[in-house]
Write a structure and sequence with these properties.
17% strand; four-stranded antiparallel β-sheet; alpha/beta; 11 helices; elongated; seven-stranded mixed β-sheet
C-alpha cells in the first residue's frame, strides 16, 4: 500500500484549504478593460461631436466673460453641458443655437449619460447576474457527471463520455487549481475550485444528484479519500476511479467504487499486447478511442432480440450483462437473451451516436 500516513494526509488537506467556488463557462466576450476603453472612446466621441456642433454655430452663443465663443469655449461648454453641471456662463442666445440644443445637444447629453451610467450599472450588477446564473444552473442540474481531476486521465475520460452524446452542460469538473478550472471552462464545462476530499466541495458540484462520478486525481491517496466521500453523498451513482498502483485498487473498491482502472497496469498490458501483435494493439487502441473506427459499447436488448442467442443478433456481441454478472457470449448459462439483459457489443463508430445509460431494473 503506497499511501501516506495520517499526518501527511492532514498536511495535504491543509495545503488545499482554499475558498471553493463554482465557475461556469462563459461566452467569448471582450475583456473588461477593453469594454471600458471602448465606452470611454464613445464618450469622448460624443464630447467632440458636441463641441464641434457648438463651434459651428458659435455666433449663436454668448460668453459672459468676453462675449465671443472660440473652439476652447465650445469644448468647455460641451463638457459642462454633457456632465449636467451647467454653469450658465456660456448660453445659446439665437434661435438656431437653441434649436440645436433641443434636437442635437440634448440627445447627445442623454447618450453621454447612458454610456457612463451603463458602465457603472454593469459593474454593480455583475455579481447579481452571476449569482442568479449559478442558482439557475444548480436548479437545472440533474443526472450529471462529476469529474474529479482534469488532468490527462480526467480529460480523456470525459471526452470519451461526451463522444457518446453527453452534453457539456451535464459535466462538472472539480479541481483545486484555478488554472485547470479555467481550462475546463474554456472547453465548455462547469467547474468547482476546491479540494474534492472535502464534502462541501463535492456538494457544490451537486454530487448528491449526479448519475456518474469519475475520480481521476493525480495522486492515489486523493482518490482513496474522495471515493468514500462521494459514495456517502450519493448511494446510487456509478463511481469509476483511477489509480496508478495496482495494490491500491482493492481499497478503492472497498471504499465504494463500482470500477477501478489501474492506469499503469492498463498501459503495460497494452504495451505487452502490442509487442506480441502490433495489429492487435492497434485494434485495442481503436476500441478504447470512442467516436472513431470501432467502438465497444453497452446497450439494452431490444424486443426483437429477446429469445435469440447472442450470435444471432445483428451486432458483434462480446458479453452479456445479466444482473450483476458479466457473461461471455459463448457462456452456456446465457441461453436465450432476455429483455432485462444488456449487451457489450463492437460496432462501427457513428458520429453523434448515443449510448443508453444503465438503469437498474428488477432482478439486478
Amino acid at each position: 500500500m503506497k499511501l501516506p500516513g495520517h499526518d501527511a494526509i492532514a498536511r495535504q488537506a491543509g495545503e488545499h484549504l482554499v475558498t471553493h467556488r463554482v465557475t461556469l463557462p462563459r461566452k467569448v466576450v471582450e475583456r473588461p478593460l477593453r469594454q471600458v476603453a471602448k465606452r470611454l472612446v464613445m464618450a469622448l466621441a460624443v464630447l467632440f461631436a458636441t463641441a464641434f456642433v457648438v463651434y459651428a454655430d458659435h455666433d449663436g452663443y454668448h460668453d459672459n466673460s468676453d462675449s465671443s465663443v472660440d473652439l476652447l469655449d465650445a469644448f468647455y461648454y460641451a463638457t459642462v453641458t454633457l456632465s449636467t453641471t451647467g454653469y450658465g456662463d456660456i448660453t445659446p442666445v439665437s434661435d438656431s443655437a437653441r434649436l440645436t440644443n433641443i434636437f442635437v445637444i440634448t440627445p447627445l447629453r442623454v447618450l453621454f449619460l447612458i454610456i457612463l451610467v451603463g458602465t457603472t450599472l454593469e459593474v454593480l450588477t455583475e455579481r447579481t447576474r452571476e449569482e442568479w446564473r449559478l442558482n439557475r444552473w444548480r436548479s437545472a442540474l440533474r443526472d450529471h457527471t462529476v469529474v474529479v481531476g482534469f488532468g490527462t486521465k480526467g480529460r480523456s475520460a470525459i471526452r470519451t463520455v461526451c463522444a457518446t452524446g453527453l452534453r457539456k452542460e451535464q459535466v462538472v469538473v472539480v479541481d483545486p487549481s484555478s488554472k485547470v478550472i479555467d481550462a475546463a471552462n474554456a472547453e465548455g464545462f462547469a467547474g468547482v475550485i476546491g479540494d474534492a476530499t472535502r464534502s462541501e466541495v463535492l456538494e457544490r458540484a451537486e454530487v448528491h444528484r449526479a448519475r456518474q462520478i469519475i475520480v481521476a486525481p493525480q495522486r492515489d491517496d486523493t482518490a482513496v479519500l474522495v471515493t468514500p466521500t462521494a459514495r456517502q453523498l450519493n448511494r446510487g451513482a456509478k463511481i469509476v476511479a483511477a489509480v496508478r498502483e495496482e495494490e491500491n485498487a482493492p481499497l478503492l473498491r472497498q471504499s465504494g467504487a463500482d470500477a477501478v482502472i489501474t492506469s499503469s497496469g492498463a498501459a503495460g498490458r497494452l504495451l505487452g499486447l502490442s509487442v506480441l501483435s502490433p495489429a492487435a494493439g492497434m485494434v485495442m487502441e481503436d476500441l478504447i478511442q470512442q467516436g472513431s473506427g470501432l467502438d465497444i459499447i453497452e446497450r439494452p436488448v431490444v424486443r426483437a432480440e429477446v429469445g435469440r442467442a447472442p450470435r444471432e443478433t445483428d451486432d458483434l456481441v462480446v458479453s452479456v450483462v445479466r444482473g450483476h454478472r458479466v457473461l461471455g457470449y459463448d457462456d452456456p448459462s446465457v441461453g436465450a437473451l432476455r429483455l432485462t439483459d444488456r449487451l457489450i457489443t463492437i460496432v462501427r463508430a457513428t458520429p453523434g451516436a448515443q449510448v443508453t445509460p444503465h438503469r437498474p431494473v428488477d432482478g439486478d
